[in-house]
Amino acid sequence: MPFELTILGSSSALPTSERYPTAQVLNVLERFFLIDCGEGTQIQIRRLKLRFAKITRIFISHLHGDHYFGLPGLISTYSLLGLKNDIHIHAPSDLERLIRPQIDHMKHGLNFNIHFYPLDFKAAHVIYADDKVEVTSFPVKHSIPTCGFLFKEKPRLANISKEAMNKYNIPVKCIQDIKNGADFILENGTVIPNHVLTIPACKPRSYAFCTDTKYYEPIIEHIKGADLLYHETTFADDKREFARKTFHTTTKEAATLAKKAGVAKLVIGHFSARYKDIDALVSEAREVFPETYAAHDGDVFKVI
Ligand SMILES: [Zn+2]
Ligand SMILES: [Zn+2]
Questions:
Q1: Average pLDDT in the 38-66 region?
Q2: Considering every ligand atom, which ligand is closest to the CA of 214?
Q3: What is the pLDDT of residue 202?
Q4: Domains with residue ranges and CATH for the chain
């Protein structure tokens, strides 16, 4: 039951020799979501041996280049690889206007359609759902309209207790009803309550992506209790004023948000290219929220 985050890029606007701009792939039960698509995303997908064909749903948080400049190249590669599945892009409405001319200019044409779904920056919305997972966008506070995303498993059905099945001789045809909450009635009329027959399913797991934003407490209600939170941490805490001016967050601010939201684990990234010693940033964040880890390109974080 995989639920894991692969970091493709963890730098801020200026890429470095070790870090590409923002991009991540989230695998939720074999659904592969691309979150932001900075320059170099397709190279990282290849390097990290992820499958292009599986990544057909893309979420773009905002239209600063370090979060979407990788898209035209990625789309061109999809086409050159002969992929046929449609691509779905959830992004600010202007994105289609910006990249459609480049797509139309691709001489080889596309064997698939690209569907654009505009984000709303005023309120939180469920923007994608299937039988296993739900994705919600929510506004954050950056210098241009920007959304974060929450990826959450849907509640799973309870598991049947094998012991109870044997003890009460439960026929296979009754299993689905019991999983859905039904009791079981023995031939003598005795009711065996559902909780005796089942083992509760694990709690649904969740991942929250808080991209470029200044410290903004209204985010908390959307990410409360997440198992994993990625929050941008462009600056160390001595740059708090500058962070505020540029609509970014410091180490201690991201850690404070993680603590207030009661998340289990915090991953920090989107580091300014000025920082060579990322360990110092992690130490600073851990003073507030001990379960803090730095994102490096290629890292995989399992959500448990
Ligand atoms: Zn950025
Ligand atoms: Zn930005």
A1: 97
A2: 2
A3: 86
A4: 3-156+202-302 (3.60.15.10), 159-199 (no CATH)
